[in-house]
Write a structure and sequence with these properties.
Strand order of the largest sheet: 1-2-3-5-4
Shape: rod-shaped
Radius of gyration: 58 Å
Largest sheet: 5 strands, mixed, barrel
CATH topology of one domain: OB fold (Dihydrolipoamide Acetyltransferase, E2P)
Structural class: alpha+beta
Low-confidence stretches: 1-20, 39-58, 60-78
Distance between the termini: 238 Å
Number of strands: 20
Number of helices: 8
CATH class of one domain: Mainly Beta
CATH superfamily of one domain: Nucleic acid-binding proteins
Length: 470
């Protein structure tokens, strides 16, 4: 029975090399001991010393062909390439028929130019396709027409390259929404045909920024700012928008002007609109406000008294708010300031003529010259007590006033009609007294003359009586 067990011992030969050598060592040791032991003892020792093999696992169930896992593909190890070799290989990937490439002119002759493309062979550009004034060393862009000619050159076309570059510009302008300039070549039904460096595009009538009185034909020959709204290379279809382009151009122009604005500048502009509180002036894309008080040194009730819409003028920049994009302008700053010379021209006590501008409860404002106003208080309107200034003067009246005080620093002048009246009455009284005095003196002289004449006559009569005979 020991022999049967020995003969039935199974050694698993599917183990790895390390496991197999370990088993062989155990078997060798056991066999050495068997040489000196009885047969039954040998068999028992072999059974104890030899590890029993693991029971084989039951065979797996059959797997359908459709769900069986695919065999792993063998891994192919690529040969290592140096950076120089990789860079050299990468240059070839960009070279294909129809591709746009750049290079430098390496040689020129009557037939054309050889262009160094950084490729395994030079490019060949025909003489008629060279730009005017081309010279060795110039960088040039071209489209590959053929990768290898019979002579081994890459055939190039600069004309096609220019078109390709323009198409790329159009696609880039569409993606980035950048502003382009196009020239209108013709007007057709429904819009305008415009040219972008030899590539024709279409501007629908709805995308044309025009005034109500303008016609589409008015735009022929004009260069317009546009935005690209559609590019289809296969159908050679390009659609532009003049309306969007105009808005972008105005914004760009406005930003530029706004960045250039500084306090103290004198700018040219056009009056865009008049409001009750002032006038708006277009500075070329940026609107500024002239407040009512900044229109003139004189008082202005409405901007229409000084300006009109569409009027061109120069304005003074008073303030620039770059946060809220507001500009404050002044007009009177460019006019002579009457208050600067007021103290030299007018003195306290001086009597001048003035125009009544407006009436208020406490008096009347009068203008002694343009931009120079003074107040005649209600107490200075007349010698008599005045309840309503309108009882004494009316707007537009020209009256004489006396300057009571002048304060140029505060832009104030105190005027009085009452003082003029008092002075006038005094003058009239003096004149009357003078007349009365003249009358009195004349009468006295006449009386004296009569008395003298009478005395002379009396003396003459006495003399005649004495000389007559008795």
């Amino acid at each position: 029975m020991a022999e049967e067990q020995l003969e039935g011992t199974f050694i698993d030969k599917t183990k790895g090399a390390s496991g197999e050598s370990e088993v062989e060592a155990l078997i060798a040791g056991a066999l050495a001991e068997l040489e000196t032991a009885p047969r039954e003892e040998k068999a028992e020792r072999v059974l104890k010393a030899t590890p029993l093999p693991a029971q084989p696992a039951p065979p797996p169930a059959a797997v359908p062909v459709s769900t069986a896992k695919p065999l792993k593909k063998p891994v192919t190890v690529k040969p290592e390439t140096t950076p120089e070799q990789q860079s050299y290989e990468d240059t070839f990937k960009n070279f294909r028929v129809g591709g746009l490439v750049k290079g430098r002119i390496a040689r020129l002759d009557q037939a054309g130019a050889l262009v160094d493309l950084g490729y395994k062979s030079d490019g060949l550009l025909a003489a008629e396709d060279l730009p005017p004034g081309a010279k060795v060393g110039d960088e040039i862009s071209a489209v590959i027409e053929k990768l290898e000619s019979k002579e081994g050159y890459v055939l190039l076309s600069r004309e096609r390259a220019e078109q390709e570059i323009k198409w790329q510009e159009l696609n880039e302008a569409l993606a980035k929404k950048t502003l382009l300039q196009v020239k209108v070549s013709s007007a057709v039904k429904g819009g305008l045909v415009a040219d972008f460096h030899g590539i024709r595009g279409f501007i629908p009538a709805s995308q044309v920024d025009k005034k109500p009185e303008q016609q589409l034909t008015d735009f022929i020959g004009q260069t317009l700012p546009i935005k690209v709204i559609e590019v289809n290379r296969r159908q050679s279809k390009i659609v532009f928008s003049h309306r969007r382009g105009s808005m972008e151009a105005e914004k760009s122009k406005a930003h530029k002007i706004f960045d250039e604005l500084e306090v103290g500048q004198v700018r040219k502009g056009i009056v865009s609109s008049l409001k009750s509180f002032g006038a708006f002036v277009d500075l070329g894309g940026v609107e500024g406000l002239i407040h009512l008080t900044e229109l003139s040194w004189k008082r202005v009730h409405h901007p229409s008294e000084v300006l009109k819409a569409g009027q061109e003028l120069e304005v003074f920049v008073l303030g620039v708010d770059k946060v809220n994009h507001k500009v404050a302008l002044g007009l009177k700053e460019l006019q002579p300031d009457p208050w600067a010379t007021a103290a030299e021209k007018y003195k306290t006590g001086q009597i001048v003529k003035a125009k009544v501008l407006r009436l208020v409860k406490f008096g009347a404002f009068l203008e002694i010259e343009e931009g120079l106003e003074g107040l005649c208080h209600i107490s200075e309107l007349s010698k008599e007590k005045v309840a309503d200034p309108g009882d004494v003067v009316k707007p537009g009246d020209i009256v004489e006033v006396k300057i009571l005080r002048i304060l140029p620093e505060e832009q104030k002048i105190g005027l009085s009609i009452r003082e003029v009246e008092i002075k006038r009455e005094k003058a009239e009284a003096q004149e009357r007294r003078a007349e009365e005095t003249k009358v009195t003196i004349a009468e006295t002289l006449a009386e004296k003359e009569r008395a003298r004449a009478e005395k002379v006559a009396e003396i003459a009569e006495l003399t005649e009586d004495e000389q007559s005979p008795e």
